[in-house]
Design brief:
The structure holds two protein chains of two kinds. Helix content of chain A is 72%, strand content 0%. Chain A has one domain. In chain A, helix 2 packs antiparallel against helix 3, helix 5 crosses helix 6 and helix 6 runs parallel beside helix 10. The mean pLDDT of chain A is 94. Chain A is globular, with a radius of gyration of 19 Å. By secondary structure, chain A is an all-alpha fold. Chain A contains ten helices and no strands. The model of chain B has no long low-confidence stretch (mean pLDDT 92). By secondary structure, chain B is of the alpha/beta class. Chain B is built from eleven helices and 14 strands. In chain B, a hairpin with a 2-residue loop joins strand 4 and strand 5. Chain B is globular and about 75 Å long. The chains are: A mainly alpha, B alpha/beta.
């Protein structure tokens, strides 16, 4: 009898106790963690927003710092989920053998990968909410529609968690993650409309940008913060959801193969 | 007695190599069953197959009436596992480790809390209940891992080299606890390469080498079936020369290993008389033990 690594995932609520485990670990260092979620985006927003923004005209009817704030929400949530799925996920899988311990219980790998995805997305949610508070405090958004940033952060988190888990499943060690950050995350930050509108790019790069999930996250976040309904709302949500679902399945297949060794 | 684990003709290939090569087992309720073998014999892979963590290339497993690996989830509800390498949660205290692990079995916090005093007592960790894992000694960590494996009150407990790396005091405490578990009717399946551990704890043993079971039975049966009842170990620089010229007439079998000669005999008297004529030789006369069986079956050369 052979195991079918490609079998359709069996989803259950058994991932919840693992999520709770991760939450218990996080709670012990919540202070530094929240500070980290706030400090980086705030420094970017203030530094670039006021510093660079002071020399720039308005973009699409908004100040540069308001323009940048939407990008910051998205790239912060992307980073939170990516770091969690890569470094912390790898530690739980490989270094601490947490997965191995869990697999000796009635929980399966399908549940574990789902828990990793939701946990990393929870970190994104936290990060999204933290940046949103800063945006409100700085008076950069006045619309109730900005509350939609909260579920959007979760969706963006699921998308990047799933992508990150693929990398974790393939990683021989922590060094491997540098490829992903250098070749995927950093280019995405620069090509997806975080710091400047995508239409500033040459046509070819615009085409690349259209394929990348962060572009669609920014397409949603920016109008929402501005109190406007995004134009291609269904398409943007569909792209993010597709990355999340396909990413979950691909990473699960890769983890099944890896752990069958 | 009813069977809790039945494995038939298990085969597992890794990179074309038959790491497990036709293993069949029938483990009964309430017994302590040992898989004994040198490193790389396939013990851990066999355990992983029995638990349904990996699927066999051939053969089948039934664990507590569930077909493995298809129904592994149902079976694991009644199983405890003590892994070879520690995988406790280093961020948590002793009790937090037990709480978090119990939740993986779907237990409520109240149900786990109700079990905590007994588990902590069993592991001799009541005084360490709020201490974080990294500050525990190796023996304490192993006891906590054992307590963790018992959180769901399992019927069968798998232990992969439960005392490897522990000092003698810590090892004896673990042995005592494992005997208590069998006394309570739990079924234990353990791997080991310590002969004294196997001889003291296990009701039945399977000696494994190169992915196969080469002998199976109680420790006494294994000794009776495989080897002469008495052993005389002769040491010293002249031992080898003496063995070549004198021993053959008095012994069923002898083996040289370094400066020692192991003489296996059905009746030691003639050899003891012979040895009295050689005051330059030192010797020990003892009953045959499991280690003799093991070395006979798996050879004396190093496994590296």
């Amino acid at each position: 009898m052979k195991t079918n690594h490609y079998a359709f995932p069996q989803l259950s609520l058994r991932f919840v106790p693992i999520w709770r485990r991760n939450y218990m670990v996080w709670k012990k260092m919540a202070g530094p963690s929240i500070l980290g979620h706030l400090a980086d985006p705030v420094i970017y927003m203030l530094g670039l927003g006021y510093g660079l923004g002071g020399m720039l005209p308005q973009i699409g009817g908004m100040s540069y710092i308001a323009f940048l704030s939407a990008g910051t929400v998205c790239y912060s949530t992307m980073n939170s989920a990516s770091f969690e799925a890569l470094y912390s996920g790898f530690a739980r899988m490989h270094e601490q053998r947490t997965w191995e311990a869990i697999l000796n219980t009635p929980i399966t790998l399908d549940d574990i990968v789902l828990s990793e995805m939701f946990w990393a997305a929870s970190k994104s949610l936290l990060s999204g909410v933290a940046v949103l508070m800063v945006i409100w405090i700085l008076g950069l958004s006045h619309s109730m529609m900005s509350l939609w940033i909260i579920p959007l952060s979760l969706l963006v988190g699921l998308c990047f968690a799933a992508m990150g888990l693929i990398v974790t499943a393939l990683a021989p060690g922590y060094e491997f993650f540098m490829y992903y950050f250098t070749l995927v995350v950093t280019p995405m930050t620069l090509l997806c409309g975080v710091f400047f509108p995508v239409d500033q790019l040459p046509a070819m790069l615009q085409a690349v940008s259209f394929m990348l999930p962060l572009t669609h996250a920014v397409n949603l976040a920016r109008p929402l913060l501005n109190g406007v309904v995004p134009i291609h709302i269904m398409a943007d949500v569909a792209v993010l959801a597709a990355y999340a679902l396909v990413g979950y399945y691909v990473s699960l297949v890769l983890f099944r193969k890896r752990l069958a060794q | 007695m009813s069977s809790v684990i039945v494995a038939e003709n298990l085969v597992k290939l890794y990179a074309g190599q038959r790491v497990v090569d036709g293993i069949s087992l029938d483990i009964k309720r309430g017994e302590c069953f040992g898989l004994l073998g040198p490193n790389g014999a396939g013990k851990t892979t066999t355990l992983r197959l029995l638990l349904g963590l990996i699927a066999p290339d051939e053969g089948q497993v039934e664990l507590l009436g569930h077909v493995i690996p298809v129904q592994a989830r149902e079976a694991r509800q009644r199983i405890g596992v003590v892994p070879q390498i520690d995988n406790l949660d280093p961020d948590f205290t002793v009790t937090e480790n037990l709480m978090v692990y119990g939740r993986y079995f779907g237990m409520t916090d109240a149900a786990i809390e109700a079990r905590l005093p007994e588990l902590l007592e069993f592991a001799n960790l009541t005084h360490k209940r709020d201490v974080k894992v990294p500050t525990l000694s190796g023996g304490m960590k192993r006891r906590l891992t054992l307590a963790r494996a018992l959180v769901n009150d399992p019927d069968v407990i798998f232990l992969d080299e439960p005392t490897t790396g522990l000092d003698p005091q810590a090892r004896h405490l673990i042995w005592q606890r494992l005997r208590e578990l069998t006394a309570r009717g739990k079924t234990l399946v353990l791997t080991t390469h310590f002969m004294d551990e196997a001889e003291r704890l296990c009701h039945r043993l399977a000696v494994m080498d190169n992915g196969r079971i080469i002998s199976q039975g109680s420790p006494r049966e294994l000794i009776a079936d495989n080897i002469e009842p008495e052993v005389i170990e002769v040491f010293g620089e002249h031992a080898a020369a003496w063995a070549q010229s004198h021993a053959a007439g008095h012994v069923q079998r002898f083996e040289e290993s370094g400066e020692s000669v192991f003489c296996y005999v059905n009746d030691a008297h003639p050899l003891l008389l012979e040895l009295q004529q050689h005051p330059e030789l030192r010797y020990v006369h003892r009953p045959a033990n499991l280690e003799d069986v093991f070395l006979k079956l798996t050879g004396r050369e190093m496994r590296e």
